[in-house]
Give the backbone structure.
Amino acid sequence: MSAEAEVTSLLRGELTDIVSGTFFVLLGLIAFSTAAIRRWEGVRILVWLGMWSGMFGVNELARSQAFAAALPDSLRSAIPLLIVLISYLLVVVGTLSFLDLSLGKLRTVLRVLIAADLLVAVAGISRFLASGVEDSFLVPNNLLAVITVTILVAVAATPKLSRQYMVVSGHRVLTVGTAVFAGQALYANLANVMHWNNPAFVSSLGFAVLLGSFGYTAVTMIVSNESRLLAIDKELEIARQLQFSILPGSAPEIPGLRIAATYEPMTAVAGDFYEFIKVDDRHIGFFVADVSGHGVPAALIASMIKVAVQSVNNCAGDPAEVLGRLGNILSNHLCGQLVSAAYLWIDTAACTARYSAAGHPPLLHWRAADATFTRVESNGLLFGVMPGCSYPVCDIPLADEDRFLLYTDGVTEPENAGGEPFGDRKLEQIVRDNRSQNAQELSARILAEVREWQSAALAQDDITLLAIDVVKLSRQVEAQEDQALSVSG
């Protein structure tokens, strides 16, 4: 027989293995590609599926003499080791695939079986490397595979167990696929012992049925999760709109003051909150709060703070009373959460300000007259530590062109790629360098600097910043007094 005829005969005899192996390798590549397109998020089950299918396909191809003959000598010599690796590790990858579909005690059992599989695999591979014997530990390896499949079929086929121990309870496609594969595996093992005829395509067919059912189940689970996430996204968008609705629509207009408010949540909803308590054109309070944590729980507490703030309007001129009342109201409803808060009261008629805080970052006071900064720290305990706390008050004289900054720690705590926090010093330097800009422009500059600082990372905290400029306060007061006298005259 000619060499060409021998190759043709060899290919004809191994055509099933080559086609089967190529099919499973391509299926594995499709699973990997799908996971990569989705940026590997929430699709770990597809990664295991791709690895499982790819390993089975490579094993089929590696056992084909025609395929081996087409490889370079350097690769052909590695085929025995490749076959041994796949023979022992295929059970491990398969069990890991089912691990993502399991819950509770079944998950624990599968982890124990994976550990046992790994021990057998290490022993079998080590024995091959030492002596060249390929099947020293294939019997315990196959036994673990049978035990694993039997447990999975029993759980999947029993509705009560399926509901309790599987992510996709009562999934008939997965149950049938696993049962078919278990039947094929049982027949293959018996055929080896009883010397029955066991065509190669039967093993491939059983594995194809299993992978098909597994893949269908995985896709169903991913689609279900996506539908759930889309519903959550819609609810979060509604929550975001509702949260923004409880914040002031715009900064109030107060003669002698220029006010700018910046609010940047880290997620769809945030735990930061601010409010203006305007009594009249001469008296106004500025309140800022920061709930520990992020997301929906913090946002719910921020909504509670909104309701609580409405109850302190009658004592708005006393920061200690404002914070004391809010602390007492909230302390029984925070469920272990903590809240920092700060309150600044400005009286433009008396040219004074009063400030108090509850575990909050300091108030920054820029004095234009002597170009100096004062970090006003007048802190009591955080809300939620204990009720009945007292809060010290700091009195601050107002002067023309003074500037106040009230902010949450989302401004000063963000870290750059080197782990260095933005910090109060950098914030103060920005204010110094931009002292000629108005409150709105300064706020935009600070926010831009914070974003640039943490450009290498995601937003790390919610940001709230209130900038208050005193604009020719004494002249405003004198002008209003002169106008009042002229009207009365």
Notes: The chain is about 55% helix and 15% strand. The two ends are 128 Å apart (CA to CA). Residues 3-234 form a domain with the Rhopdopsin 7-helix transmembrane proteins fold (CATH 1.20.1070).
